[in-house]
Amino acid sequence: MKITVFAQIQAHPGQTDALFNLLKQLVRDTHTEAGCFEYTLHHSLDNANHFWMYEVWQSQAALDAHMTSPHFNAFVTASEELVKQVDIHKTYAC
Fold it and tell me: Domain of life, per the record (predicted)?
């Protein structure tokens, strides 16, 4: 079953550009993963500190592999001081 993820990522004030650069690298790295159908970064027009990630994965196993990948874990470590809040919503198509 395909898994869709909507992740809202909020940068700390003054950290938007640094987080944006890390997110763009994460997108480039993630597109090479098996089971990744879509991984798209969106930047809010209403609030410069808000980003959205839209992801479509072949399965929960593919998403799990992403969450343990070296590049994702490197992103988490590098962005710890930049990110104020993350809200993640996982869905599947009905």
Answer: Bacteria
pLDDT digits (tens, 9 = 90+) for 20-72: 999 999 999 999 999 999 999 999 999 999 999 999 999 999 999 999 999 99
pTM of the complete model: 0.93
For 15, the 3-state DSSP assignment is coil
- Structure tokens of 21? 């650069």
Residue 75, SS3? helix
With vertex at residue 85, the alpha carbon angle to CA 83 and CA 90, rounded to the nearest 5 degrees, is 115
Please list the alpha-helical segments (H only) found in the chain. 16-30, 60-67, 70-79
Whether residue 10 contacts residue 86, with contact meaning beta carbons closer than 8 Å, is answered with yes
